[in-house]
Specification:
The protein is an alpha/beta fold. The chain is built from twelve helices and seven strands. A seven-stranded mixed sheet has the order 3-2-1-4-5-7-6, with helices on both faces. Helix 9 runs antiparallel to helix 12. The N terminus is likely disordered.
Length: about 290
């Protein structure tokens, strides 16, 4: 195990979970065993905690009734894995000797994919001890624990070495933290010219205050969705310069339409679809370089 990975162990809970809100978020994810996350991951052992991109194959809804649900599960998983591939596509030129950070790493799927693609070292951090243990178990099963490790750490204060990361990503995790504090930490961690990639849902400032549908999403996930403008203010304040911004909203709507027809629907599908279609919520990919 690398020195950097080793130095990340044995941090007291009080140094990771510093506020009542952080404790409540950690408790939510420690207890979470949602089939929409577990059953999809069981398809191929890549467990995601994000949503999907791309058109779904309508034939999954038309075949034999007795296998319909499994077809939907597999198709949803394909769309979620496609989303992770899009994120990895934007990390830039990664070499095997590079070190990456998955901030808010969930059950580890994207970190494992990054190592498989680039052969590099990846550290994931999460405030959920259950997720960290699960993700490390997956890395062990795949025989990549020497290069992919997950740690009980707060992404606002990782205690990693300054300038130690070539690339960092967040995949639907920024709504749990203050963006100025988060991007200050990322700016410290990235080497000069290093890259940050974010996929996130954000409220649309043009429509005014958050809509009822966006508020329902907040309530469901115990999060605080930021307005779109907040991302760019916080990036600019921390020497992170956007090089690419892509509106993924049209590409994620089919995933939600399929998920709404599945047995693993959680009830949040209608607020997502309403918010996307009314324009009060956007699904963005933001790529920024550290200067």
């Amino acid at each position: 195990m690398s020195r950097i990975s080793t130095q990340m162990e044995d941090i007291a809970m009080g140094d990771v979970l510093r506020t009542d809100y952080q404790k409540s978020v950690a408790a939510y994810w420690n207890a979470e065993k949602d089939p929409v996350n577990i059953r999809l991951g069981e398809v191929d052992g890549l467990y995601h905690h994000h949503y999907g991109l791309g058109e779904y194959d309508p034939s999954v809804l038309a075949g034999p009734a007795e296998t319909r649900e499994q077809r939907i599960i597999e198709e949803m998983h394909r769309l979620e894995t496609a989303q992770a591939e899009v994120l990895l596509d934007h990390l830039g030129a990664i070499k095997p000797a590079d070190r990456l950070l998955d901030a808010g790493s969930g059950r580890g799927g994207t970190s494992i994919m990054a190592n498989a693609r680039f052969g590099c070292h990846v550290d994931g951090v999460s405030i959920s001890e259950q997720q960290v243990a699960f993700a490390n178990g997956q890395a062990e099963k795949r025989g990549v624990a020497d290069k992919v490790r997950f740690h009980f750490r707060n992404m606002l204060d990782t205690r990693l070495d300054t300038g130690s990361r070539r690339s960092i990503w967040t995949n639907e995790t920024t709504m749990y933290v203050d963006l100025f504090d988060l991007f200050a930490e990322f700016s410290r961690l990235l080497e000069y010219g290093g890259r940050y990639v974010c996929i996130t849902g954000c409220s649309n400032d043009v429509t005014g205050l958050r809509s009822k549908a966006v508020s329902k999403i907040d309530e469901h996930y115990t999060c605080n969705i930021h307005p779109r403008s907040e991302y760019f203010k916080a990036l600019a304040a921390n020497n992170l310069v956007p090089i690419q911004v892509i509106d993924l909203t049209p590409d994620t709507i089919p995933y939600w339409e399929l998920r709404a027809q599945s047995s693993v629907a959680t009830g949040v599908e209608d607020p997502f679809l309403t918010a996307y279609k009314e324009g009060s919520f956007h699904y963005l990919l933001i790529v920024a370089d550290r200067i």
